[in-house]
Amino acid sequence: MKKAQKIEVLEALSGKLSGAKSATVVNYQGLATKDLQVLRAELSKVGGTFTVVKNTLLKLALDKTQAGQDIPTNALDGPTAIILAKDDEVAPLSALAKFAKERALPKLKFGVFDNVIVDSEKLEILSKLPNKTTLYAQLIGTIAGPAYGLVGTLNANLQMLVYIFDQRSRQQANLLKAVITNGK
């Protein structure tokens, strides 16, 4: 690759990195072309892209971000690809983890979330998180749960009060009937 081409690729990669919500760097060595196509399709469904990159160009692109200095030692050895997330930070990582679990490839190297380098162990933990929509729903359920409990408790008290009034009115009606019946 000529120097001008490298500069163009570097600028394009830097632009993609700065526009991405997260990036995951993997070693794809041993992955068959057919499997690679399947992985790309799976990532595309969840808003991710899989791009094979040269280690030196990736290092230079990461150096343009604040995270470039924190790259783990030897993380950019061997064949390298980068998975960029466009919309949801974790969804492409989850799809990648599911794919890797079935085929034992690709291997996680490190990730970049908000210009912070995340090692492979933390990436595995992040990959097990549900998608953003599910997390929002769980959060809302957690926040709203006590309010629903309070409403239920107050509603039960009101129902009990209505029941007591109903029973008291029946008692009064029965007493009135007894008085009328005995009075005749």
TrEMBL record:
Purpose: Forms part of the ribosomal stalk, playing a central role in the interaction of the ribosome with GTP-bound translation factors.
Record PANTHER family: 39S RIBOSOMAL PROTEIN L10, MITOCHONDRIAL (PTHR11560)
GO terms assigned for molecular function: large ribosomal subunit rRNA binding
SUBUNIT field: Part of the ribosomal stalk of the 50S ribosomal subunit. The N-terminus interacts with L11 and the large rRNA to form the base of the stalk. The C-terminus forms an elongated spine to which L12 dimers bind in a sequential fashion forming a multimeric L10(L12)X complex.
Pfam family, one: Ribosomal_L10
GO terms for cellular component: ribonucleoprotein complex; ribosome
Organism: Candidatus Blackburnbacteria bacterium RIFCSPHIGHO2_01_FULL_43_15b
Keywords of the record: Ribonucleoprotein, Ribosomal protein, RNA-binding, rRNA-binding
Family: Belongs to the universal ribosomal protein uL10 family.
Protein name: Large ribosomal subunit protein uL10
Any GO BP: translation
